[in-house]
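Q: Could you predict the 3D structure of TENP protein?
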Amino acid sequence: LSTLLSLLVPAHSSGSPDCGAILTPAGLSYRKSGPRFSRGGGREGRQRHLPAPRRNHINSVKVAELSLSLIPDAGLRLSIDVDLGTAPAPSTTKVLRLSILADLHVEMNPEGNLELVTSACKPTVEEMQSTEELERSTPRKSSGSDVDKEINVDKICLEISKLLLLPHEQLTSLTAQFPVTPSCQVQYLPLAAPVFSEQGITVSLQTTFQVAGMAIPLPGSPVPFSMPEPASSGPSHLTLAFSEHFYTSLFSALEVAGAFNMTILVSRASKENNPPSPRQTASLFQEDLPVMLQAAFRSSPQVVLEEGKAALKLFLTAHVGAGSPAFQSFLSVNVDMSAGLLLRVADTRMMISAAAIEDIELSLAASDVGPVPAALLEEFFLPPIRAEVPAQLNVVLSNGVFLPHVSSFTYTDVNVVIHKDYVLVPCNLRLQARSG
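A: Sure. Here are the predicted structure tokens for TENP protein:
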């Protein structure tokens, strides 16, 4: 299989997006509720590593405000206000307000990962008369020479770049390979740097699949996909979008991986009860044997999205035979069927399940036992196919498919909306607590 796959064109050569995400201003401003970072006399305080003053001792640090805002067509602006309690003399305490404005943008590195980069940084320091005046008076801005004496502003921007190490790790995790089955993995690759607008940050992604560690080619999308315009009044933190082609590619990859190869028990063959024609098949077997149906795809599955519903179309060839372990096929049946798909999201996975078969058609492909009437095919094979095909599909799909996400975040308050040709998933973000 590896040799065969290595001869094929890589799946990502077309460079066409099939899914994406829009991080809204609400998602950008999302933060975990709780006390702001501070350090003082309490044990619950958390030390923030900031440049120490040249001559004074910092005895308290309080992050008064931290915000991240969009700059359309450019990037982000990070704003941090930090109150520093300093002790210039043993009996006095002075409070400095350190304000930092940093402009950020996102680039794509040669490895295809997104990187958050500082493009501008401006720190300023304002001197407060006392701790009490911090809450009731207007700050008094100190002179440039005083600022230089109190705190080393040259090191501030270096510290800001250190704050970006965790976001770098999280952005890199976006392009990780996620397992679909033991032999099949999915990966989401950004095609370009994100687009910044008043509506949010838009990222276009292309899905690739690996089988046995090799990227596999998939049918190209007949219609180019672009992220739908977000609803201006939407309160969600994030909106994920998936094209019809994304779902077709998923099922095609699983079919290439052999995940949907299935064997269905039809009945037991005997001289008294032999499907599909007792007289024709009784002479083939001298003892009771199980009659099995081995199904394989004769063409790739297709997913069709309409308003409010999704359907999976399967095109199978079912080889009917008996014998175990040596399978002897005596009949081949073409099976064209359509099953409804149910979509929901749990954590960071899309859970997909096949519902009842909506439409099915059987036709004789080959026979070693002579002509077989269509009514006889339906009588013997429709019931087990209707029952077993959705059941075995759902076993394969039971673990779900990882959605594009970065580490430490999960999705909550999810709503899956199916439109013609694409699926929207508006949701909120939830930051998981980090241990240690």
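Q: Anything worth pointing out?
A: Residues 69 and 430 are 19 Å apart (CA to CA).
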